[in-house]
Design brief:
The protein is of the alpha/beta class and 407 residues long. The chain contains 13 helices and 16 strands. It has 2 domains: 92 residues, Urease, subunit C, domain 1; 305 residues, TIM Barrel, CATH 3.20.20.140. It is 35% helix and 19% strand. Strands 6-7-8-9-10-11-12-13 form an 8-stranded parallel β-sheet. Strands 3-2-1-4 form a 4-stranded mixed β-sheet, with no helix packed on it. Strands 5-14-15-16 form a 4-stranded antiparallel β-sheet, with no helix packed on it. Helix 5 links the parallel strand 9 and strand 10. Helix 2 runs parallel beside helix 3. The longest helix is centred in the middle third of the chain and has 18 residues.
């Protein structure tokens, strides 16, 4: 058990600091380092001037898809539509054990890069049956001592157009999943998309659960699901408990309409998640020039007071052949894609993989402060600019003060 991390740089604080950790794994104090160097104590970690952060959070991932690229036909067009088609075929043959093994590989990767919390979506549509969900639940159980995982029940093929999906979502929640997921834009008609959103809130009320909905993951400026979700959040009294993931169409709206949608998101206290790698890869693919970047309006949303986070989304699957589980790579892409390379912008991006997703996931005890759990990453660089520039794996990862990697 670690008793302290010393000679550490901390975000927003000058000089070097010592983080004292007590036996229950929480932070007891944050104190400026006194002259004399690190004590010769094996329970004290010398950060040697490196930056210490709370554990990274991957707030949007698909563990059931991870490392499935070799199990599906090649996505020759690189499009979302083709990826969905290939996945629809492949998932009918997958076993729970196959899903568990691939998920464990991805979880190990994320832990090695300092991720302490994951929110993963799992396909529970009728074609997937419950096999994918069972595999992810097993992987979570096998790794619960090393990482926290929230599971979102995700109807990949829709709800209205996939009869039986709603009952599968209900069964997955009974089995121990945590969050109600959706994909409102993936229905046949606008009316069906609205019905999809209503059903999400009905199910969320039934289980007193939060909602995290894939929404408007399209370049189509006519797609209107985000504003419906935000308005329904207020109508149903679910403010602060709803997350809109992707929200790509917002970038294709004219400024006047975008401002209206953003004001609705503010009113509903809706969290927004962007997935820079996958959004850059999939969106804007049909454009000539100028090409749209595909991400949502990250800076405008943050400026409006909306809680914005960034996720990995995919690791080597038919939707995205890349992805490593390194949240610093996710942040690095976001810095480029939304022109967030100023000192203030880089700090915003750091928030998008730490404090902001902690709010979206409503995590208790998260953060680098007295009384919070000592889930920490110790990095070799002294500031966030250098951290994102090099994107190195942490020197050490702590969970509740216990070393889970490095040191």
């Amino acid at each position: 058990m670690t008793t302290a991390v010393t000679n550490a740089h901390l975000r927003g604080r000058d000089g070097l600091w010592t983080i004292a950790i007590v036996a229950d794994g929480t932070i007891a104090s944050l104190d400026p380092v006194q002259p004399g160097g690190a004590p010769a104590d094996p329970t004290v970690i010398d950060a040697d001037g490196g930056l210490v952060l709370p554990a990274f959070i991957d707030c949007h991932l698909h563990l059931d898809l991870a490392y499935s690229l070799d199990l599906v036909a090649p996505n020759t067009s690189g499009t979302l539509v083709e990826a969905i088609g290939h996945w629809s075929e492949a998932k009918r043959e997958l076993t729970a054990e196959n899903v568990r093994q691939r998920a464990l590989r991805a979880i190990d990767d994320e832990i090695s890069f300092g991720v302490g919390h994951i929110r993963t979506h799992v396909d529970v549509g009728t074609a997937a049956e419950m096999r994918l969900c069972e595999g992810i639940l097993a992987a979570r159980e096998a790794t619960r001592e090393r990482i926290d995982i929230q599971i979102v029940v995700f109807p990949q093929d829709g709800i209205v157009q996939d009869p039986g999906a709603l009952e599968q979502m209900r069964e997955a929640m009974r089995l121990g999943c945590d969050v109600i997921g959706g994909i409102a834009h993936n229905e046949r008609t606008e009316a069906d998309s609205r019905r999809h959103i209503d059903l999400l809130f009905d199910l969320a009320e039934e289980f007193d659960a939060d909602i995290d909905c894939h929404i408007d993951e399209t370049d189509d400026p006519r797609s209107r699901c985000t504003e419906v979700l935000a308005a329904k959040t207020v109508e149903r009294g679910w403010q602060g408990r709803v997350t809109a993931s992707h929200v790509c169409a917002l970038a294709s709206y004219d400024d006047e309409h975008a401002a209206r949608v953003i004001s609705l998101l503010v009113e509903g206290r809706v969290h927004v998640i962007t997935n820079p790698g996958v959004n850059l890869h999939l969106q804007g693919r049909g454009d000539r020039y100028p090409k749209r970047r595909g991400l949502t309006r990250v800076s405008e949303l943050i400026d409006a007071g909306i809680n914005v986070s960034a996720g990995q989304d995919c690791i080597r699957d038919p939707f995205y052949p890349l992805g490593t589980g390194n949240m610093l790579e996710v942040g690095h892409l976001l810095i480029h894609a939304d022109h967030l390379s100023t000192p203030a912008g880089i700090e915003r991006v750091a928030d998008c993989i730490t404090d902001n997703p902690a709010k979206a996931l409503r995590l208790d005890g998260y953060g680098l402060a007295v009384g919070k759990r000592a889930d920490l990453v110790i990095l070799d660089a002294a500031d966030m600019t250098e951290v994102f520039r090099t994107r190195q794996a942490p020197r050490c990862v702590l969970r509740g003060g216990r070393r889970v990697m490095g040191c």
